[in-house]
Write a structure and sequence with these properties.
With 989 residues, this protein is an alpha+beta fold. The protein has 20 helices and 53 strands. Strands 6, 7, 8, 9, 10, 11, 14, 16, 19 and 20 form a ten-stranded antiparallel β-sheet that branches. Strands 44-45-49-52-51-50-53-48-47-46 form a ten-stranded mixed β-sheet. A hairpin with an 8-residue loop joins strand 3 and strand 4. Bound molecules: 2-acetamido-2-deoxy-beta-D-glucopyranose.
Length: 989
């Protein structure tokens, strides 16, 4: 939510003055590049890029120095093990690198490479460091929750091939790993075709442990010529890698901070190529388009790799590979007919280069077109080489396989997918209650109001400012009248001050992150001097839970939920605004090893705390996090951090949120309105119209901005924003059903074109429009000033209908759709049934028992299908069957609409059905209504389980002819069928 700018405020008034002046004179805010490393300033990145350049420059003579020892290989129960030997100097023993290739039941493969010497602890750390000696090998403990069952049927090929080992694995053995011994490399094949290659370019590089050789001081005194020669000689003798730049091996400084690097160089790098694949997606979080651009310079390309090093990047810049707050090292490669992927499970600072290589057609082989290979180069500072390979073949297959490993998104409470109103800050409990009343007065729906850091007493979490938040319980009671919630911020930095039981506890129990000497690490954040809770420590997470009990966090209530910010962690005076890499976490792992996991351990601890606030009160927690890693989806929602109130940031938010969706963490959104700066009313309105498509939908604003609650915009803006909010609320059943699908299959909640139409090459890089769940709803948010129409790309030949007036758009290609300010461009793809709740309410909680409207959108074959998932939106009873899951189908052949159960009965099913027995379908709208219905005035309705007399009854029917360009449509008035029951509406009778 904020920035070091505000932080510096507490440091020096002068700085504030300067930044205020800067803001006055430069309309556009800017990221401070000098605060963050480029690849060139990050020793291991620079070294590995140089390694790649050297390999490319000497491509004919270059051989990767890694060889698999064939004698060492064995395959047992789905796991291939062996030793890779890295040759270093002529006479030196090669470095032994244990290799494990695990073939998984899911059809995925996992390749792990360790380093024997470090594994055995057979190394010496510098500076008497207490750090662990091994390469970090616990990322899986935090990131993985399943999917690791071994494919015992994996088998070696019975044909001997010199220099290769071939393993068949996966369903029906259709997948193959072809392992080359010299140099070591792997090709992953599906149905005989290679899709993923490891070390094809020879960039595998595991920086092995070596002792630092101090150069004798007297050499320096000798003549220059001699000296140079002497050093060159020494280099050859001591460090086998000739010509390698040792400058960043032992120590690295940046921005006045020095990293002591007790283990020396330890980077791990590998090239992964996707032959025939032109597009790669994923590896959030970056402010980039969906289809990732190349990174090694050239026209319109980036010159730095994509960086993954969770950071508090203040006023971040768009169209940049710079790191942001979270990291998911999961990438998909996509081409017509195939999607594959890799998950690089490493939590250290990571850089990913992407280049595309065009292969020209061979003039002699007619019919073979030129194709593009995407080549990637993954570089991490430390840890194991640990990579999962997914062979698809569909986008959903890859995303689901990744989700089976790292978990699917948690099922949210229903309020959490409604509208959130936030600001830094609502200044008092009276202010909160006033905003709450004003929403009601203007009939604007909202569910949650948020408190940023100012609610606390002097930035001490778990306290309230006694002057401004006098009666938080009364405030929350008022919110609860409309089933509304409060979200309060709690960050991981704990104020280092007297008379504060939280810091006292943390110190006495030794639960804080330690500095390199093993003492509690002290740094600066919002409260000034602070310590950081170390949630890698199970004792710290257990203690963290106790702080949220209602009698501990006094003033919190059952409708209080939590926002975890600054958990990268943000440290104002630390290197790159975070912790020193040589800090120590639980188990003496260096911060370097675990940095990208840090935020997740914290929000997970908060999730567990909310779960257990009170014995017997078991409800789904809601936690928002800024920092994240693979697995964060299991316990939090995320937002894209500190964006700007500019059109460009509105535009950039769509691909960013889409990217979260295809990367396994779909509960995502951007600050509506833009965090920094004051949006024009037009921008604010358009941002709400776009924000209704973020799975996580929150308006937020910086403390220096003017108030911008929707009711303040004035006519016509307030009315238009209210219409947008109502549309979100009307479609909450669609969103909830999409969340359920994400929760059970990993499917994205909002979906890019390539995911929905994986064979439509023209649409692979389309990232400015989205489909909502499986509903066929296709939205194109307006992201340009002064727009009155948008161009929507349609990939298929289904009819698409305007959501509001049923105008028909049909035919693959671009279609112009009107979009004056009051109009939200939203189409319905033919072939779907969309469940809605049409009664406007003030909060989602008040809609719980509202009736449904079904919109049947007939496809070109005259059929349509859709689904609805429904539960209490609050507890975990759905896990015991307390839910409704229906499939609706319209079948042209039988001329009828049916609802069938697709749920599984559990112990709590009947009770829930009973609770919902009066919730009915009150209206059926058919878009693209069949001509044969013309003149019809009633239809026949039958319902299972109803009384004999009621079993077949009539319902009123109206048929409307569409005006020019618009679809015919029909309405069934109040068929009175239960939403939880089986029923049929017969249009022929
Ligand atoms: C989350 O918390 C659970 C329960 O304490 C723990 O088992 C798990 O390892 C934690 N996961 C992460 C990612 O912190």
């Amino acid at each position: 939510m904020y920035s070091s700018r505000a932080a510096s405020r507490s440091w020096t008034g002068l700085f504030l003055l300067i930044s205020a002046l800067c803001c006055l004179f430069s309309p556009s805010l800017m990221v401070k590049h000098e605060n963050f490393k480029t690849c060139d300033q990050s020793g291991f990145c620079k070294r590995n890029r140089a390694y790649a350049d050297n390999a490319a420059a000497t491509s004919t003579s270059w051989t990767s120095p890694y060889t698999l020892d064939p004698q060492s290989l064995s395959l047992k129960d789905g796991q291939l093990t062996g030793i890779i030997l890295k040759s270093i100097a002529k006479d030196a023993e090669p470095v032994r690198l244990p290799l494990t290739v695990s073939f998984l039941e899911s059809g995925s493969a996992r390749v792990t490479v360790d380093e024997e010497k470090r594994q055995k602890g057979d190394i010496v750390l510098r500076h008497d460091s207490k750090a662990r000696k091994e390469r970090y090998n616990e990322a899986g403990n935090w990131a993985l929750v399943g999917g690791l069952e071994l494919n015992k049927g994996a088998a070696l090929s019975n044909q001997e091939e010199d220099g290769y080992t071939r393993v068949f694995y996966g369903k029906e053995g259709k997948q193959e790993a072809v392992i080359r011994h010299h140099p070591f490399g792997i090709e992953f094949k599906r149905n005989g075709e290679t899709h993923v290659k490891f070390n094809d370019r020879g960039l595998l590089n595991m920086e092995h442990w070596r002792p630092k050789v101090e150069k004798p001081a007297e050499e320096k005194k000798e003549g220059e010529e001699e000296n140079k020669e002497g050093e060159a000689e020494k280099k050859e003798e001591n460090s086998e890698e000739k010509g390698e730049d040792e400058g960043t091996w032992w120590e690295e400084s940046f921005g006045g901070n020095t990293d002591s690097k007790p283990r020396g160089p330890e980077a791990v790098a590998l090239d992964i190529s996707f032959p025939g694949y032109e597009h790669v997606f994923g590896i959030p979080e970056h402010a980039t388009g969906l289809s990732l651009k190349e990174t090694r310079g050239g026209d319109g390309k980036y010159s730095d790799p994509y960086r993954l090093y969770n950071s508090d990047v203040f006023e971040y810049e768009l169209n940049s590979p710079m790191t942001l707050y979270g990291a998911i090292p999961f990438m998909q490669a996509h081409r017509k007919g195939s999607t594959v992927g890799v998950f690089w499970m490493n939590a250290a600072e990571t850089w990913v280069d992407v280049v595309k290589a065009k292969s020209s057609p061979n003039p002699l082989s007619l019919g073979i077109k030129s194709h593009t290979d995407t080549q990637t180069h993954w570089i991490s500072e430390s840890g194991l080489l640990d990579v999962f390979v997914f062979l698809g073949p569909t986008p959903q297959d890859v995303i689901q396989s990744y989700g089976e490993l790292t978990g699917f998104t948690a099922m949210p409470q229903s309020f959490a997918i409604a509208y959130h109103q936030c600001r830094w800050n609502y200044v008092s409990d009276e202010d909160v209650m006033d905003v709450d009343r004003k929403f009601d007065k203007h009939n604007i729906p909202y569910d949650v109001i948020w408190l940023d850091i100012e609610y606390t007493q002097e930035k001490k979490y778990f306290t309230w400012d006694p002057l401004t938040f006098v009666n938080p319980i009364k405030m929350q009671k008022q919110l609860d009248k409309r089933e509304r919630k409060l979200v309060a911020i709690i960050d991981p930095h704990i104020k280092n001050t007297d008379n504060y039981n939280v810091i006292d506890d943390m110190k006495s129990k030794s639960l804080a992150v330690k500095n390199k000497d093993g003492n509690d690490y002290e740094g600066w954040c919002w409260p000034g001097s602070s310590y950081w809770v170390d949630c890698f420590n199970p004792a710290a997470s257990a203690w963290w839970k106790t702080l949220f009990k209602y009698d501990k966090f006094k003033g919190s209530a059952p409708n209080t939920f939590i926002w975890n910010d600054m958990n990268e962690p943000s440290v104002f005076n630390g290197p790159e605004t975070t912790m020193p890499k040589d800090n120590l976490h639980h188990g003496n792992w260096e911060h370097r090893d675990v940095h990208n996991l840090n935020g997740m351990t914290f929000h997970n601890a908060t999730y567990n705390a909310i779960l257990e606030r009170k014995k017997g009160e078991v409800r789904r927690p809601f936690v928002l996090t800024r920092s994240f890693y693979s697995g964060s989806q299991r316990s939090a929602a995320m937002w894209t951090g500190d964006n700007l109130a500019e059109w460009s940031h509105l535009e950039a938010s769509i691909p960013m949120v889409l990217n979260q969706g295809i990367s396994g963490f779909p509960f995502a959104g951007a600050d509506v309105g833009g965090f920094f700066g004051n949006p024009s009313k037009e921008l604010l309105t358009r941002w709400y119209q776009a924000g209704i498509y973020y799975p996580f939908f929150r308006g937020h604003a910086h403390i220096d901005t003017r108030r911008r609650e929707p009711y303040l915009a004035g006519s016509p803006y307030t009315e238009i924003i209210t219409q947008a909010l109502r549309l979100r609320y009307q479609l909450l059943p669609v969103w909830y059903t999409a969340f359920h699908e994400a929760h059970t299959t990993g499917a994205p909640i909002i979906r890019p074109n390539y995911y929905v139409h994986p064979d439509d090459e023209r649409g692979f890089s389309v990232d400015d429009q989205l489909y909502i769940g499986s509903t066929g709803l296709l939205a194109k948010p307006v992201t340009k000033e002064g727009t009155d129409s948008v161009s929507i790309y349609i990939a298929d030949d289904q009819p698409y209908f305007d959501y509001f007036d049923y105008t028909i758009y049909q035919g693959a290609g671009h279609h112009t759709v009107p979009a004056p300010l009051e109009k939200i461009p939203l189409l319905m793809q033919g072939g779907h049934i969309i469940p809605r709740r049409d009664r406007p309410r003030r909060s989602s909680g008040l809609m719980k028992f509202d009736p449904f409207t079904l919109v049947v959108v007939l496809g070109k074959d005259g059929n349509a299908e859709g689904s609805l998932y429904l539960d209490d939106g609050e507890t975990f009873d759905y896990q015991s069957g307390a839910y409704i899951h229906r499939r609706f189908s319209f079948d042209k052949a039988t001329n009828s609409l049916t609802s069938i159960n697709i749920g599984t009965k559990g112990p709590k099913t009947d009770a829930y059905l009973k609770l919902m027995k009066n919730v009915r379908v009150e209206k059926v709208i058919v878009v693209g209504a069949l001509e044969i219905w013309k003149g019809k005035t009633e239809v026949t309705v039958s319902e299972e389980g109803s009384k004999e007399s009621a079993r077949r009854r009539k319902a009123a029917f109206e048929y409307h002819e569409g005006e020019k360009g618009k679809a015919n449509w029909a309405v069934v008035r109040d068929p009175k069928v239960g939403v939880g029951r089986g029923w049929k509406v017969d249009f022929s009778g």
